[in-house]
Amino acid sequence: MDRVIRDAGATLYDSARKFKDIPDKFKDVPEKFSEMKEAVEDFVEDSVTAARRAARQGRRMADDFVQDSVREVKRHPVETAAIALGVGFGVGVIVALLLKRK
Q1: DSSP letter at 49?
Q2: Which residues touch 80 (CB under 8 Å, ≥6 apart)?
Q3: What's the CA gap between 60 and 62, in Å, rounded?
Q4: Is residue 70 part of a domain?
């Protein structure tokens, strides 16, 4: 019986000693959270900047495409009208065939 009491006491002592060290293990947690918060804020800021940059670039590319298209239509109006007519006719034939199947 004494041995059981001694073992229980030793186990209790070891557990108490381990629990005593827990606050020391977590004393750096607020600092770590602060570092993580800063890292996330930097990541979000960089992502927003990259998204804005990509949006500006996409807008410029779309504007360039429209300007190039307008320029080509002005330079070759007959060819442009013929192509548009051909594409419209082709789409009409395809739609008619698909509707006829049903």
Answers
A1: H
A2: 72, 73
A3: 5
A4: yes
Instruction: Domain count for the chain, please give it.
Output: 1
Does 19 have pLDDT greater than 70? no
Q: Which domain holds residue 25?
A: 2-76
Two tokens, residue 102:
């049903």
Close Cβ partners of 73 (under 8 Å, ≥ 6 residues apart): 80
| This model's pTM is above 0.90 | no
In a domain, 59, yes or no: yes
Residue 10 Cα distances to 16, 19, 22, 23, 32, angstroms: 10, 14, 19, 22, 35
Q: Is residue 20 a part of any domain in this protein?
A: yes
| 8 Å CB contact between 73 and 80 | yes
